Amino acid sequence: MTSSQSTDPTRAGNHFFSNYPAYSFWSAEQLPEVHKVLASTPASATPLILYVHIPFCRQRCEFCFYKVYTGKSSSEVRSYLDALLTELEAAVRAPYLQGRCPDYVYFGGGTPSYLSSDQLSELFAAIQTHMGWDGVKEVAFECEPGTVKEGKLQRLRDLGVTRLSLGVEHYDDEILEIAGRAHRQSEIYSAFEAARTAGFPQINVDLIAGMVGETDEGWQDCIDRTLALGPDSVTIYQMEVPHNTTIYRRMKEGDDEVAPVADWETKRRWVAAAFEAFEGAGFKVGSAYTAYRGEDTRFMYRDSLWHGADMLGVGVSSFSHLGGVHVQNHADLEDYQAPALAGEAPHWRAYAMNEDERWRRMFLLQLKLGQIDPGWFASNLGVNPAQEYASLLARHRAEGWVAEDAEMIRLTRAGLLRVDSLIAEYVPAEFRTSHVV
User: Fold this and answer.
1) Which candidate, 428, 294, 345, places its Cα nearest to that of 90?
2) Residue 436 has pLDDT above 80, yes or no
3) Residue 359's domain is classified under what CATH number?
């Protein structure tokens, strides 16, 4: 069913909940709070994540809302990497980060696999001169299938990547073309086969339910092909249309209020069918978006982040979360590179959370896992979310979104599939925004 025929259509806006408080509450006025944290001493047991942002792509997807750059020359890429590494070198001198080794490393974008094999080798080596990797438990790396061949994939494995995430999205070449994806079906299969040969411990496949042109038959074929491919984990997102996308620009030009993608009811039905199929093949559903084969293929970076780990993000527009303070780098390439190359923090805006905001952030993010242990919050943070949200949980229980469970806060499958909408109701009124639909 298309959105125009539905009572629950997909309209423009951010549906996916990614952080708390929302970015619109962050400001340059709070940047001094970042300096205070960096000058302090971290809690010894706090895990550290290193996020490395590579903003380059072969072409911009129609649904992409990230800050990405296409058509950049090798010298421009080199200048960016110099800025990123200079930023990292300066950051790890701060007392809060000095001597700390990351537990998890994530290369995101953009398209990290846009870099050449030699650029990747230089990047990994330079990072490791600034931060020891002896304690790293997971190195995750995003790939666009059309940017990797046998040689580059083997190089990534030799460099220590343990979790390779292939941005498949779909297998239908027509849907991929409409979406502005640079790769095609044949490249998916060749990239996956080469990745298996390279010996990555975990290969994840990303899919999107509800892309322009999707049908019931097409989505079932997508599920079947993924099962036949045999990844270790699968991530499935429900299609949305943020305001800073090409799709939205076209909607605006045509004065359309409803996006030309599947409605929310249909998208939830498609993800439910996928989860059921993967469970039938021995997978476990680990969150609102993921299914995995076994505990050794869980996404450790994400789980750690949602349980309060520190995260140092380097690169244009990247986010950090350090000692309860959020900070984002400048989102424009020139605004980022100038201070970074000068050895100055390229920070744009920040938000320092109080104790109440800290536990709520973890609660809201952990709702995406489908179950929460109130006892963990009581023991670690001194607050019981089951009591704090008693009335709202009771209503959601009556509506069928939360299961009856005396010990855990557990979402039903129907609740899990609409978790981003449910989360919006748990956000305190003063932090609700129109961006969450």
Assistant:
1) 345
2) no
3) 1.10.10.920
